[in-house]
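Record 1 of the preview.
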Amino acid sequence: MRKRLHEIMDVPTEFHEDGAPEYPVLPDEFNRNAPIVEPETDKHRLRKIMLYFASIGLLSVGLLFLSSPHTKDPTASVTPPPAAQASETPALTARPTAAVTMEPTAEPTQAPTATPAPTPGVDVIYYYHASLVYYAALNISVPDQVTSVSLRLTAPNDENPALEIELTPEEIAKGYYQLRAGDRDDGFDANAYFAYREETELTMEIRYTASGDAGQETYVETFDPSVELWIDWRYDSEEDIGGIAEWMYGEIFPNCFVVRLYESTDPEQQLIVGSDAGTLKNGGIAIAISIDGRDIPSEDGTLYSAMYRYTDDDTVFYDYALVIPVPEDFPQHGTATMTLTRRLSGSDAVIVRIKTIEY
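->
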């Protein structure tokens, strides 16, 4: 019988392939017994190839495969690279960072929006009446291109205006006009006009001429007034007791500054001590009183109110009085500056009025 190789070389039985069964089979370190397997079609082959490239640092290749519109059918047969070439540097390893690093997209630069040039003309800031006194303020845009401005206050069915004013060139050039008529510091008192007429509201007509692209043009606009509460703000002295002031107001608060409102329909009328317009709601009123450079504290004011109705009228009215005595640590007599701030109920316009009184 022909001898086996281990018998010829005198290899101990524990080291040959037919050795004693009590010795375990040694690892096939050199792949001598690897079976010959024919390549098979694997529907997951594409994923395996991607994992293979990822394992050697080529994640970018997997990204390229995923994003390529020409990726092969995953059911097709793909032959992996030979094991001997796995340690070689693939051709794409020089660009993995470029493939996965994304630069931020720059925001498109927008062309600056051109600010339109102001149009010459006249805008009404406010127009309202409190009782029979009418108040108005105008803003004149591009006054050097506005050649004339006039206003008329008229009643319905009356050819004669209650008031007619032509602004002077100096008033136009200022760019702002506040209605003043007669000996008043502000507003127009229409009591004399309605003395022999039926009381009604006055419409304001604005007429102005301005230069534009088409040359000089004349514009006419009309405005109806809003209605605001009449405000009486004064100092009640001891001498007013029993006099005409007590007859007018019904009650006197001697040695106190008083702000009175009549016929309000707001049960929560805002009437406070202070000067911050930002705290005022529409229709709100604030009064600040300064003596020798010191303001009377807001907590020193007391608000009184009275509710009533008129006969054959279901409307509920409220009269208010904000009473502010002179604090003990203030001079009991002297000069005081009263600053009244109100936010109109019909618009967000804020009106500030100041007067100095002896008390």
